[in-house]
Amino acid sequence: MEQITATRSELLAGRARLDLARRGRDLLEEKRNQLMEEFRRAAEHVLAQSDELDQAAADARLALVRAEVADGPETIRSAALAGRRTITVGARPITVTGVRIAEIEYPRIGLPRFDRGYPPTSGSPHLDRAATAFEVQVELMLRLAAFEVRLRRLSDEIGTTTRRVNALETVVIPRLQQQIRAIHSRLEETERQDRFRLKRFKERRAAESSGESW
Question: By the 8 A CB rule, do 60 and 123 touch?
């Protein structure tokens, strides 16, 4: 069992620690609220862009089918091989509500018609429409991935902050309150004993002065 020193200074120190723990809890709760608001905004982006990505994927598939019908599968495959390129994705650290998050960076996805790698005369306008549709889809995928990274990081930080709040609320603060009550109780008991001893001492001195014996 933890030993408690029942002194006035220890009582004041315990109260100071309790006040610090309460202020720490309040600050963490405020941080958690801000994180949850940022999480809500990021989640709204993810949901909205998920729907947008689904629509873009459907549009790209339809554009591809039309291009294959108009130009033939061989022409489409040849254009796809000629236009194939590597997209370099990086990350840079940003701070959101005090939380460091890796933000995904990527180059411009959509390219002008003459920069796609295949000859502009190799197919019908349906080929260009299909290429544009898939560029839009890739752009949305990367944008959605960036928000999903933010969402996961915020979720992890909310969990960590919640555990800290719970530890202060259910462990640290109750323990400090119990210690303060114990110190206060012991001090009161000590004061009662001191008053009793002082009263007996006065009574004894009074009795000695009057010649009475004990």
Answer: no
Cα→Cα distances 37→42, 62, 84, 152, 154, Å: 9, 38, 40, 14, 10
Token look-up 């996961």 returns: 152
pLDDT 10s digit of each residue in the chain, 214 long? Answer: 456 677 888 889 999 999 999 999 999 999 999 999 999 998 998 999 999 999 999 999 999 999 999 989 998 888 888 888 888 888 888 888 788 888 888 888 888 877 888 877 777 889 999 999 999 999 999 989 888 888 999 999 999 999 999 999 999 999 999 999 999 888 888 888 878 787 787 778 777 777 654 4
E strands, 73-206, are 90-96, 99-105
Instruction: Tell me if residue 105 falls in helix, strand or coil.
Output: strand
How many C-beta neighbours within 10 Å does residue 178 have? 13
Burial 44-70 (b: 16+ CB within 10 A, else e): ebbeebeeebeebbebbeebbebbbeb
Q: What is the pTM of this model?
A: 0.71
Q: Do 135 and 84 touch, CB atoms closer than 8 A?
A: no
| Contact yes or no for 147/42 (Cβ under 8 A) | yes
Smallest CA-to-CA distance from 26 within 168, 176, 156, 154 is with: 168
Q: Are 154 and 81 in contact (CB under 8 A)?
A: no
